[in-house]
Amino acid sequence: MGMKPAKQAIFVFGALAFGWLAIEMAFKPFLDKARSAEDKSDPARDPGDDDDSADHAQKDLPTESDAFVSDENPATV
Fold this sequence. Notes:
The protein has a domain at 1-39. Helices cover 62% and strands 0% of the residues. It has helices at residues 5-26, 28-40, 47-59. The model has no long low-confidence stretch (mean pLDDT 76). Residues 35-77 are annotated as: Disordered.
């Protein structure tokens, strides 16, 4: 073939990257659905946490991430 090994490796890597991107773009709707279903099926995730943060946003209450108190971030509630 006459191609140097480094040049051949770069060519193969480029072809694999192009193929991966083409598959991602072609199947984007299906992959997004599958990824969101996978996120929802996480056993460590508590669905109640999502509703809790929405309630806090409506009532202007601090969320769990706001509950961090230190000398630089004193509690004002």
